[in-house]
Amino acid sequence: MGNILDIIAVLFMVIGTLFSLIGVIGYIRMPDVYTRLHATGKVSVFGIVFLLIAAIILSPLSLWKGLVLIFFVLLASPSVAHSIASAAYRIGLPLAHPARDDLRGKMEQGDGRDV
Amino acid sequence: MESIINITTWIVLAAHLLMALVAAWRVWRGENSIARLTALDLASTLTLAVLILISILEQNSIFMDAAIALAALSYLSTVALAKFISDQKVF
Question: Chain B residue with minimal CA distance to A23?
């Protein structure tokens, strides 16, 4: 059988794919934009990072490129989600069955009519 | 062991390609512009995963450079598009 590292790499790859699958299913089923952003965050953070760990284990030459990519994806994903959520709130997209809306009144909103 | 890695990589690549196609279809058929923008971000992240898997299959790290470039471009374009959608001007 292969050494332990290859088994770990295959495991990471499968776990990364499961997280991506959960993220895409979450993206399709979530009611409004804000919860969808929560789902896509899973894909880009857990899915990609686990795949990158598997890639680094399987081809150790691309160690530093993989680390740069992990750092960049972990940096970019939350700020992308933030910018999309603030854009959605600014044009006034409704929250699906909102429990609390802390930003109500503090930020000028559009009327939800699409661009 | 080599064949197990190959088979798993091919299956994972097929799964990610399928998900990227689903996300691309949602880019085409989203109900409003923000949903389409989220689908665009999802599709580019999944193509990033496809690039990484190809770099595993081909054992060639040039695809990692392409993945870094795609990550940077998709990040910048999504933020610029979100800014444009929110108040109709980019700068």
Answer: B42
Does the ipTM exceed 0.85?
yes
Answer whether A72's CB lies under 8 Å from A9's CB.
Answer: no
> Which residues on B lie below 8 Å from A76 (Cβ)?
71-72, 75
Question: What residues make up the domain containing A27?
Answer: 2-92
Instruction: Report the pLDDT value the prediction gives residue A62, as an integer from 0 to 100.
Output: 87
Q: At how many degrees (to 10) do helices B33-58 and A48-58 cross?
A: 10
Residue A111 lies in a domain: no
For residue B53, the surrounding DSSP H or E stretch is helix B33-58
How far apart CA A14 and CA A9 sit, in angstroms, is 9
Would the CB atoms of B52 and A51 count as touching at under 8 Å? yes
Tokens of A93: 């997209």
Number of domains into which chain A is organized = 1
- pTM to 2 decimals? 0.90
Q: Do B78 and A80 touch (CB under 8 A)?
A: yes
- Residue A1 pLDDT > 70: no
B58-91 confidence digits (pLDDT tens): 888 899 999 999 999 999 999 999 989 888 877 7
- Chain B CB contacts of A21 under 8 Å are 15, 19
Domain that holds residue B51: 2-87
> Is B68–A65 a contact, with Cβ atoms under 8 angstroms apart?
yes
Give the length of chain B: 91
